[in-house]
Design goal:
InterPro entries: ASRT, TM1070-like_sf. This protein has 125 residues and is mainly β. It is built from no helices and eight strands.
Length: 125
């Protein structure tokens, strides 16, 4: 592959981590995931900002995605600078120093019949 796939800036306008789950942790715990693909030859330094309806943004959350690798980052597990609150609508912007591809996935296991939803994030550059 000559050029890395993707963009440097992505947005996910919809986010929500359900506050409860019926499945075993961690496999079937309700969660949101940011799936990041780095097809390039350089590691990606990725920064996430999280936006809310009624308060200032949280972040940046910083993660590395190695070259020619993927990383599935659960929003539930983000702790620094602060955890993402449950049962709270949010949106996120993901920026990288190299091109990446971002996909958004939610597992909602509040009831025994689990719901899974996924979509490609919006490329912003």
């Amino acid at each position: 592959m000559t050029e890395p796939l993707g963009r440097r800036r992505w947005a996910i306008a919809e986010g929500y981590i359900p506050g409860r789950s019926t499945g075993p942790k961690p496999e079937l715990e309700s969660h949101e995931t940011c799936c990041i693909l780095n097809t390039g030859d350089r590691d990606a330094l990725v920064r996430l900002m999280v936006y809310f309806e009624d308060r200032e943004p949280a972040g940046p959350y910083t993660v590395n995605v190695q070259a020619r690798r993927t990383r599935h980052l659960r929003f539930n597990e983000l702790k620094d600078p602060e955890p993402i609150p449950r049962d709270t609508p949010y949106a996120s912007v993901i920026e990288s120093d190299v091109p990446i591809v971002v996909q958004h996935t939610r597992l909602d296991s509040r009831q025994a019949e689990n719901a899974l939803m996924t979509t490609i994030a919006f490329p912003c550059d």
